[in-house]
Design brief:
Blueprint (H helix, E strand, L loop, with lengths): L15 H31 L6 H12 L9 H25 L9 H30 L19 H18 L3 H26 L11 H31 L9 H13 L8 H11 L1 H20 L23 H6 L35 H4 L10 H8 L5 H50 L10 H40 L1 H4 L1 H10 L3 H21 L15 H37 L6 H13 L6 H34 L7 H16 L3 H5 L4 H35 L12 H7 L3 H26 L28 H23 L5 H31 L18 H22 L16 H27 L27 H31 L4 H38 L17 H20 L4 H21 L6 H17 L6 H16 L10 H18 L12
Helix pairs in contact: 1-3, 1-9, 3-4, 4-5, 4-6, 6-7, 7-8, 7-9, 7-10, 17-18, 17-19, 18-19, 19-20, 21-24, 21-26, 22-29, 24-26, 24-27, 26-28, 27-28, 27-29, 28-29, 28-30, 29-30, 29-31, 30-31, 30-32, 31-32, 32-33, 32-34, 33-34, 34-36, 35-36, 35-37
């Protein structure tokens, strides 16, 4: 026989104030039980006088009495209710906030977060309560101060609070250690609640709820939570006790850490755990408070679950399912004897298994959980099928067990038959008597009123019921209708309140989108979708909790579900519309070109998360590619228009050689002092044009570097599958398997290469680039025309400066682009661009270099060099000019745009580049030498008005008089000498070192040309000076005033000798003033010429008398001794010939007996003449 299982008693309904009172009394019990242990803990924390907990206990009881353990109990006793109420309220509220949907079982980390937040909020009340408790606990003695203690300060917690507020105020008095309390409470309650919940879940059997634990297990879980509480916070509790027990309030905002550091420094790590032993014992007792509450809640939950109710005050009672139990016995009952227990229908009739449904399925199901197959294995149903039962339940059961099960089944059937037989035998007489009575009563009723005419006795009853029904319809019809409407309204309001989050979702989404909090919008959208799916699946399936539908409400619930479905669908349509608008807004943001890559990637990830129909990555790449292309075109067009405007508005540079030389001179001066700002600050048209061209390159390069790296980075991520649901790899086959569109991958590479090609095409068009010739021409370049981008009449220095800057901008751009590892096509395009640009710029530099070298002689202003006054600044300027152009050409030719490692910074110059530079280098030198000759034989015209600022002493004058040809020749010869000895070797050596080539033959040729020019100029100068001396000598010797044949005896030196020597003095003075190193060379040459002139003149004399011969000897010897330091072997040889000629022309008939005496007089005259003219001819004296 079966019977309905008895229901547990329903606990009485309690109000909120009863809970509060119960909680207060539970908290007070906690304080009473745990206060002694807490006092020991606090004293161990704040005082080092005790050896341990037992020593503290003994001394406290011995010196202060047993009730000293209850010091400070008043404040927690009074405040425990408010503290617990605030703690539980905050914890419950925070759990509700962290829950994604109602009644969610939170993860442990969320439990910890809720506990930490509740602890922080709880500190507002617990801090002053703890402060007053610790102040009272830390006082030693009974009632008055004694010799061995500090004496009682506070009479009680009220006196203590008054004293602290009066002395320190509320903040530093009553709320002292507030931050230390927060530092303790946050980890404490995070550990407590998470530990308690963890223990509950571990102690719960599988399939049951943690809320159904018995009180014993709840107390065990509470104890575990208590241990977790103190283990997480105990060091901070020591710090809090120390801070709150201090006489003065702590200073600073980091006092928690400074106090902890001080405790550790003075007592080590053990000082931070003093008093933890009584704390652990304390938690074993006091943690039961939460377990008591949870036990109460578990009992209520068990009642609600048993009856299938939502709360303890239901508005109607659900119909219970048929939970009747069949009499089935288990194998253990068979072995131990049947005790009459009744088992449920899912028990195995063979007694071999606990349930026919298996271990993973509960033994009781509502009707909605059964299907035809399950009904066939329940032995108590009409659909029971033995074959199907054995196939499904005992398919793997051994034969021996089946035999034992069959024996068990027979036994249970026999037992049931025996019970039925006993029942019949014991009650047979009663059955017969009842049957007779029933038959008699039925016969009488059938005879009297149970017939068709009287409607089987209910005709009057039916009439009365019909009348009552009509009256009830009239009276209660409107009332019931209004009641149904009210029920529907209440039901609708309850749904609105229950799903308030869902109905507020559209406005929340709009607010989040307006504030650009898209991640919040997506989170709310997904949460709303979960709510919608759960709601649509739950509506219309309302049960009473026992597995059966409520028959009285089935129709209404179905109707309401349809109504709610329409409302929910309408709300969700609005949500979908808002999300579509958000997608459009995000796609619009992807087209904004100057947004950062981090923002764009975030936007793309948001759109991918929304699973949009259009690929957001491809949308961004396509729009960004079009933007970059349009931006480059627009920028290039705009900069070109600026150049055209400059050409039309700026005054044209003068094309005269003089003006070109002036601009070159200024450029050289700026380069020499490295004043490049002044160089580019010029208002000349060429400078403005160069700046505009540089601006074009910088603008295009900057735009490329600003846009392309981000574009390629995202393209690379797209190609690598970063934005796919499962990351792709580089293999094309694997990409195809990942579902990537390989056409888009190829298109990404083509778009990036297209941007590079557009950049290269613009620069190629601007600079008129052409392929670089690979072969060296057999003949030197004869004529070259500058391309159109080169400004007219721009000097080579300015050209070099701007072209190197332009190439450097291009080089930096290309290096940066190559560093992002683009496709090989793009790298090849950039390589070709740089090669062609280098060659074009080198051609332009060489052309300007040659042109300026030809006109460089115009820069000679005959200003003497400050360091070497025998040469002019012309050489220094040429060296600066030549050095700067050579270096610029080297920079252009050796520019390396693809090397990333450069420990060896030297570069090999290609042969065609080297040939071009070397050719220009030599041509400029030859042009310079040619200009030197032009300077000598051309009348000097200054480039700019000369302002003479000659110093008072002529020795330090800054320039010579360039109007005199002799001065120009002498300085030019001196310049040539310096050029050969110093400058040419220096610049050639620099060239050979830089370009790693040999120029020995070219140097020899240059020196030959220099020697030839030197000879030409020197011979010209000497020729003119020799002509003057020659005229003096010839005219003097062959003068009619001198008769060499009739001179009786020698006298003083003739005047023409003095005149000739004085002319040499003038030459000496001129050379000394201009080019002193040339004195010896010039006077030597003049002396040799003068000796030849004397020989020629004396050979024309017919004969010499003795006196004439001595006179000629005197004059020749006077010149010889005066110019002795300049006498060369050639001159000496000529003098000997002169002496021989005079001797041959001597007339022996004039008498020879006086020769010795005459020669003595000649010597005397020679000495006197040298002595008298020593001052005049001092310049010829050889220095000692």
């Amino acid at each position: 026989m079966t019977e309905i299982s008895p229901a547990p008693p329903v606990p009485p309904k309690k109000g909120g104030w009863e809970d509060f009172v119960a909680g207060n009394f539970a908290g007070m019990a906690q304080v009473f039980i745990g206060q002694p242990l807490d006092t020991i803990k606090v004293r161990l924390q704040v005082e080092p006088r005790f050896k341990g907990p037992m020593d503290c206990l003994i001394q406290t009881v011995k010196n202060e009495g047993f009730f000293a353990l209850y010091k400070g109990m008043a404040s927690p006793l009074v405040g425990i209710g408010a503290v617990n109420a605030l703690l539980f309220a905050a914890y419950s509220r925070l759990k509700a906030i962290l829950a994604t949907f109602p009644n969610e079982q939170l993860a442990l980390y969320k439990i910890a977060i809720a506990g930490a937040g509740a602890g922080a909020i709880n500190s507002v009340l617990s801090s002053p309560v703890e402060l007053l408790k610790i102040k009272m606990q830390a006082q030693y003695g009974r009632s008055k101060a004694t010799a061995g203690n500090s004496g009682l300060i506070y009479k009680g917690p009220i006196d203590c609070s008054k004293h602290l507020i009066r002395e320190f105020g509320i903040r530093n008095g009553l709320y002292r250690g507030f931050w230390a309390t927060i530092a303790r409470e946050i980890p404490a309650y995070a550990g407590f609640y998470s530990g308690f919940e963890f223990a509950k879940r571990k102690l719960t059997l599988e399939g049951n709820s943690p809320d159904s634990l018995p009180p014993s297990k709840l107390m065990l879980a509470g104890s575990f939570g208590g241990f977790s509480y103190w283990l997480c916070c105990y060091p901070f509790d020591v710090v809090k006790s120390k801070v709150q027990n201090q006489k003065n309030p702590p200073k600073g905002i980091f006092y928690v850490f400074t106090t902890m550091s001080s405790i550790y420094k003075n007592g080590g790590a053990a000082a931070l755990t003093r008093g933890i032993t009584p704390t652990s014992d304390f938690e074993k007792f006091t943690s039961g408070r939460l377990s008591i509450y949870d036990t109460q809640f578990s009992e209520e939950a068990a009642v609600l679950k048993h009856y299938g109710l939502d709360n303890l005050n239901p508005e109607y009672w659900e119909e219970e399912p048929d939970n009747r139990k069949s009499v089935r016995y288990s194998m253990s009952d068979f072995n131990n004897g049947i005790a009459g227990d009744e088992l449920s229908d899912d028990v195995d009739p063979l007694g071999l298994k606990k349930s026919v449904l298996g271990q993973d399925t509960p033994g009781k199901f509502g009707l909605d959980d059964f299907d035809k197959e399950k009904l066939q294995i329940f032995v108590g149903t009409k659909s029971f099928n033995p074959k199907f039962f054995l196939h499904k339940v005992h398919n793997d059961t051994p034969y021996a067990d089946l035999l034992r099960g069959a024996k068990f089944l027979r036994y249970t059937l026999d037992q049931k038959s025996e019970e039925l037989r006993s029942l019949v035998q014991d009650n047979f007489d009663r059955f017969v008597s009842a049957k007779n009575t029933i038959d008699t009563v039925y016969g009488e009723m059938k005879a009297q009123s149970l017939n068709a005419e009287s409607d089987y006795g209910v005709s009057r009853l039916n009439k009365a019921l019909s009348e009552a029904s009509d009256r009830a319809e009239q009276l209660f019809g409107p009332v019931l209708a209004n009641r149904n409407k009210a029920e529907k309204i209440r039901s609708t309001l309850s749904v609105l309140e229950k799903y308030k989050y869902f109905f507020n979702l559209p406005s929340n989404l709009m607010d989040s989108i307006k504030q650009q909090k898209y991640d919040v919008a997506i989170r709310d959208y997904k949460k709303g979708k979960v709510v919608l799916d759960s709601t649509m699946g739950a509506e219309g399936a309302d049960t009473n909790g026992s597995g059966s539908y409520s028959s009285e409400r089935e129709y209404d619930e179905t109707a309401l579900s349809v109504q709610y479905r329409r409302v929910f669908d309408k709300v969700w349509l609005e949500v979908d519309k808002i999300m579509e608008e958000m997608k459009d807004q995000l796609f619009e943001q992807l087209t904004e070109p100057w947004r950062s890559m981090e923002e764009q990637e975030k936007t793309i990830n948001i759109l991918l998360e929304l699973e949009t129909a259009e690929d957001p990555v491809w949308h961004y790449l396509d729009s960004q590619y079009k933007f970059i292309i349009d931006l480059l075109k627009e920028s290039y067009k705009e900069q070109l228009s600026k150049i055209e405007t400059l050409k039309e508005t700026l005054p044209k540079n003068s094309s005269s050689d003089k003006d070109l030389a002036i601009r070159l001179k200024k450029s050289i001066r700026n380069v020499n002092i490295r004043d490049f700002d002044s160089l580019i600050a010029g208002k000349e048209m060429d400078v403005q044009m160069w700046k505009a061209i540089l601006e074009i390159v910088k603008s295009l390069s900057d735009l490329l570097l600003r846009c392309l790296p981000d574009f390629w980075k995202l393209s690379k991520s797209f190609m690598d599958g970063k934005f796919q649901k499962s990351p792709a790899v580089l293999s094309a086959n694997k990409r195809r398997r990942q579902g990537m569109d390989l056409r888009k991958v190829d298109q990404c590479e083509k778009m990036a290469s297209g941007v590079i090609e557009l950049y290269a095409s613009f620069l190629s068009e601007l600079f008129a680039l052409s392929p670089v010739p690979n072969e060296i021409p057999d003949t030197p370049t004869i004529k070259y025309e500058n391309p159109s981008f080169v400004p007219l009449h721009s000097d080579s220095v300015t050209t070099c400066y701007f072209l190197t800057r332009i190439l450097n901008e291009m080089n930096e751009c290309v290096n940066d682009i190559n560093s992002i590892n683009m496709a090989s096509d793009a790298s090849g395009t950039l390589s070709q661009l740089m090669d062609q640009a280098r060659w074009r710029f080198l051609e332009v530099i060489c052309q300007a270099w040659n042109a300026d070298a030809k006109n460089f002689y115009l820069l000679e202003d005959w200003t003497l060099d400050q360091d070497n006054r025998e040469i002019t600044n012309f050489l220094r300027n040429f060296h600066i000019f030549h050095k700067y152009n050579s270096r610029s050409a080297y920079k252009i030719a050796s520019q390396n745009y693809i090397s990333d490692n450069d420990n060896d910074k030297s570069s090999t110059i290609p042969e065609n580049y080297l040939f071009k530079i070397k050719e220009t280098f030599l041509n400029s030198l030859y042009a310079y030498l040619e200009g030197l000759v032009h300077l000598v034989f051309t009348e000097y015209t200054p480039l700019e008005p000369v302002v003479e600022r000659e110093p008072t002493d002529i020795i330090h004058k800054s320039r010579i008089d360039p109007s005199q040809m002799d001065s120009r020749i002498l300085l030019t010869i001196s310049n040539l000498s310096n050029l050969k000895q110093l400058m040419i070797p220096r610049i050639v050596n620099q060239f050979e070192t830089a370009y790693k080539c040999s120029m020995a033959d070219d140097t020899q040729a240059l020196n030959t040309v220099v020697d030839q020019l030197d000879g030409i100029l020197f011979d010209d100068y000497i020729k003119r000076k020799t002509e003057i001396v020659r005229n003096i000598i010839i005219n003097g010797i062959l003068s009619n005033e001198i008769d060499w044949s009739n001179i009786s005896k020698p006298g003083e030196v003739h005047s023409f000798v003095y005149e000739a020597l004085l002319s040499l003095v003038l030459v000496h003075a001129q050379i000394s003033d201009i080019a002193k190193p040339l004195i010896n060379r010039a006077l030597t040459a003049l002396l040799e010429s003068m000796a030849i002139d004397c020989l020629e003149a004396f050979q024309k004399v017919e004969k010499f008398s003795l006196g004439g011969m001595c006179q000629a000897t005197l004059e020749i010897e006077f010149m010889n001794q005066t110019l002795s330091q300049y006498v060369t072997p050639q001159a000496q040889e000529t003098l000997q010939i002169i002496y021989t000629t005079i001797e041959q022309l001597y007339d022996t008939t004039s008498g020879t007996d006086r020769l010795d005496s005459e020669l003595s007089s000649v010597k005397q005259f020679l000495v006197d003449g040298r002595k008298n003219t020593s001052l005049q001819f001092l310049c010829f004296k050889k220095p000692k």
